[in-house]
Write a structure and sequence with these properties.
The chain is mostly helical and about 190 residues long. About 60% of the residues lie in helices and about 0% in strands. Among the domains are: about 50 residues, no CATH class; about 90 residues, no CATH class.
Length: about 190
């Protein structure tokens, strides 16, 4: 950029007003200093320093806070921090679990019930879910706006979901049905000689 272009840019409206204010401020400080007894050379120097400092501060762009947003790592299920957070959210002063713990229990219930073709949020499945897990457990996880359940109700719901998710003990276990029989060797009755 040439010197003329730089001077023209300094005299454009946004900077022109700031420069005028800085010169007037410097001249005013110099005049006040001279009036109170400072000699002319020092009063002019003081006015010039004030004008330059004001111009430099005026040329600096407006302060914008440089708050760095903390990058929050997604909570992975089962990590130590997740388990700690969940355990603290299960206990509160009122005896009810925190909303985050209740949300996690409902997510677990959604997963377990989906394995049995039941939808926690579908009103048509509400009766079947209540029969499958019991009325106390259903009351702890059912959808809708209501007070958060107490820890005992959440524990009962978790136990009911565990029972529902456990394989049926009367059905044959596919792993145990394939027993490997040892081949029987014919016993010899001969005595060693």
């Amino acid at each position: 950029m040439s010197d003329k272009a730089t001077r023209r840019q300094l005299l454009q409206p946004p900077l022109r007003g700031r420069l005028i204010i800085c010169v007037v401020l410097g001249a005013g400080v110099g005049l006040v200093a001279w009036y109170f007894g400072m000699d002319v050379a020092h009063a002019l120097a003081l006015g010039l320093v004030v004008a330059v400092v004001a111009a430099v501060l005026g040329a600096v762009p407006e302060h914008r806070p440089a708050d760095w947003a903390r990058e929050r790592a997604p909570l992975e299920s089962g990590i130590r921090r997740d388990v700690t957070h969940l355990s603290w959210s299960l206990h509160s002063r009122s005896g009810a679990v925190a909303a985050s713990a209740h949300r996690r229990v409902r997510d677990l219930a959604r997963t377990v019930l989906a394995r049995h073709d039941l939808d926690l949020d579908d009103p048509a499945d509400a009766a079947a879910i209540e029969v499958a897990i019991g009325p106390a457990a259903w009351d702890a996880i059912r959808p809708g706006e209501r007070a958060l359940p107490h820890l005992a109700a959440v524990e009962a719901a978790l136990e009911a979901l565990r029972r529902l998710d456990r394989p049926d003990p009367t059905s044959p276990d596919p792993a145990s049905s394939q027993t490997t029989a040892r081949p029987q060797t014919p016993a010899t009755t001969e005595e060693p000689r």
